[in-house]
Amino acid sequence: MKALLIVAHGSRRAASNDEIRELTQRVTAQAGDSYNLVDCAFLELAEPSIPDGIQCCIDRGADEVIVLPYFLSAGRHVAEDIPNDVKIKQDEHPGIRIRIAPYVGGLDGIAGLMLQAAG
Amino acid sequence: MKALLIVAHGSRRAASNDEIRELTQRVTAQAGDSYNLVDCAFLELAEPSIPDGIQCCIDRGADEVIVLPYFLSAGRHVAEDIPNDVKIKQDEHPGIRIRIAPYVGGLDGIAGLMLQAAG
Q: What confidence tier does B75 reach under pLDDT thresholds 50, 70, 90?
């Protein structure tokens, strides 16, 4: 059973966190059969944390968790903080496959999407 | 003459600002005939500022500037700070059309792009 966990920075502004939750719903709607479960978690300032989010996927039956960093640049959060959180859970659950997908800002497709947005 | 100005937050980390400049190159390469000019500017912590970036487009001959917020959530920066910067230049140059495109995180296409990234 395969889970997709969208991880965002988290904000003191509740509406920004809700926006991530709404995006998670949109991704869920478009995921089709690709994932059995799509959820979100936050690096800081909002709940659930990334380790708790991964644990929740495992508790719901996932044996594969893809962690997708919803970040625009490859800073410390993407390079260190998220991998550190993932390692904690991977060490706890060696039988579960946990993989970090490329972060959103680094995708080739982002340039095309921006041109589409600009109209 | 039509210009696309990608506006990012800006970072103390030079590599993050360089990443925006590289993205701007990728967008330029994909823009084809849609834009005569593609450039980037920063809300804070990096140069050029948004007003300076808009001015630079005008100085290079643009009579239409599309400002594209490279942001993931509709917080204060997207809702207030960028429109305020744009208004300063619009008031200075009433003959130039300056338009703010939807911010990246709010686009329908972002969900599909994320699923593609997750693989």
A: confident
Quick check: B26 and A117 CB within 8 A?
no
Regarding pTM above 0.95, the answer is no
Asked whether residue B74 carries a pLDDT value surpassing 90, the answer given is no
DSSP result, A29-76: HHHTTS-SEEEEEESSSSSSBHHHHHHHHHHTT-SEEEEEE--SS-SH
Query: A101 contacts in B (CB within 8 Å)?
Result: 117-119
Domains of chain B by residue range: 2-118
Across B22-49, average pLDDT: 95
Q: Name the maximum alpha-carbon separation found in chain B.
A: 47
> Nearest chain A Cα to B13, which residue?
A75
Enumerate the H helices of A60-108 as residue ranges. Answer: 76, 82-92
User: Which of A19, A68, A114 is closest, CB to CB, to B27?
Assistant: A114
User: What is the architecture, at CATH level 2, of domain A2-118?
Assistant: 3-Layer(aba) Sandwich (3.40)
